Amino acid sequence: MKTTTIIVASTLALCAYAPLTARAQTETDVSERSPEAAPAATTEAAPLPAIVPATPGAPVVDVIPAPLPEAKGPAVPTEPTGPSTAAAERRYTFWGAEPGRPADESSFALSPTVPIRFASYTWLDTGYMKQQNQQVGSYDKDVNYAQGRFVLGVSYRRDMGPLFAEARAQFVAFDNEFTKSQYEPHTQDAFVRVGGRLWDVQVGRFLAWEPYYRGNGIDRYTAEENGALGGPSMYRLDYALGYKDEAGQGAFHLYPVDWMAFELGAVYGQESSQNNLGVRPVLALRRFGFLLIGGWEYVKQRPQDSSNKVKQNENGFAGRLAYTFAGTTLGVNVSHVNVDAWQIDGEVNGTQTFDKTSMGGYVESEFHNNVVGAGYHYTTSDNKKGESNAHHQSFLSYGYRLPVPGLTISGILGFARAAIEDADAKSSWENDVTSFRVRVRYDMQ
């Protein structure tokens, strides 16, 4: 009840603040704050293409993440804009896509007859991984795999003086369409956003900002992300991150000054016959090549059936400090979460009640048409049963932008080791996985 009160009070406060902010931005003389007056964009190097695109993106252009880091410095508008859109683009130029997502999102095609933007990309992975499992009864595995994805995004944007409104949807086709053990259509982004240069409100399906960045070699739904068998997953402030199957999302964004941005995210709705309710504030500061971003989340899941006592609370934080100089970015991350879970009979679930900590770092360097990267992350998890599990995840990556515009090729070598305990069997063991994949990606230009 206390959490619900906090969320409702925060929402009412934001609703009251938004009109005042809109009035303030209307009175601002945009001509006195030209793009040249803003600090040069010093976004960190973008990750190589991820299976799920990076973020909802900026409010000016439709999105698909670029395969390699964006060029530093002010972006060049691709079409004539009035004062209102120029102001929004200025914010986009400084922050890149979003402060929590370093990937650039600028490739799109504009329909000549209606104000609809199209964005599309496709990628194909060809990979191999070798699993070495020491647990009694488990076997080593050699796995060949190939997978791919085609994404088509459509957005409509309308500018009304200092304000704008935007709707976006992204549709997905898989190279291997037999996904989640059934044939079905898929979407990624599907949201509506309204706001102005200083603020916006977003509702629907999207990814929130990510304080914990893994580096350009650990992409979504890959062997590098999964790591070694049985290892605790990396915590990235991701219980309310987004792209939920059923529950909806909301976010309020505030850009009070060029070097500061704030997101208040939330989840609300149902999932797996449980009600979800959560809040997720994130603050980002960027100045003189430094990026400091941190956030906190609290999510609770409650049963819809009064006879069911299964419930869970997640309370965690995450942060990142990164520095970019001469095309090279160094970054460190830290995160911690406490999860409390109860079984159907109301008793504490010892396995699912745990404390988890992740920490790690990465380096990315861009030169000419190349980008190289490396990273290491360490996750520990201690549950109520007394089991202590650990997970080491590391990678090396290399990407090259081919002479064909929009076409890139990258290679990622990964290694992970999980140290696992079983309190019931009074045993412990280690599992290893070594993986390598080549990704070919084409972005619509």
Question: What does this entry show, briefly?
Answer:
Helices cover 10% and strands 51% of the residues. By secondary structure, it is mainly beta. The chain has one domain (2-443): Porin (Beta Barrel).
Give structural notes.
It is a single chain. The chain is mainly beta and 445 residues long. It contains 3 helices and 17 strands. The protein has helices at 2-27, 83-95, 223-226, and strands spanning 109-110, 116-133, 141-160, 163-174, 186-196, 199-205, 248-257, 260-271, 274-287, 290-303, 311-325, 328-342, 354-367, 370-383, 388-401, 407-422, 427-443. β14 and β15 (388-401) form a beta hairpin. 41% of the residues are buried.
Q: Report the uncertain regions.
A: 10-97, 101-106
What is the structural class? mainly beta
Q: What's the structural domain tally?
A: 1
DSSP E strands, number: 17
Write out the strand line-up for the largest beta sheet, numbering strands in chain order: 2-3-4-5-6-7-8-9-10-11-12-13-14-15-16-17
The helix content is under 10%
Tally of individual helices: 3
Largest sheet: 16 strands, antiparallel, barrel
The CATH superfamily is identified as Porin
Cα Rg? 22 Å
Name the beta content range. over 45%
Order of helices and strands: HHEEEEEEHEEEEEEEEEEE
Q: Could you tell me the mean pLDDT?
A: 79
CATH topology: Porin
Notable features of this structure?
single chain, Porin, 445 residues, mainly beta
Please outline the helices and strands.
Layout: H1 2-27, H2 83-95, E1 109-110, E2 116-133, E3 141-160, E4 163-174, E5 186-196, E6 199-205, H3 223-226, E7 248-257, E8 260-271, E9 274-287, E10 290-303, E11 311-325, E12 328-342, E13 354-367, E14 370-383, E15 388-401, E16 407-422, E17 427-443
Antiparallel strand pairs: 1-2, 2-3, 2-17, 3-4, 4-5, 5-6, 6-7, 7-8, 8-9, 9-10, 10-11, 11-12, 12-13, 13-14, 14-15, 15-16, 16-17
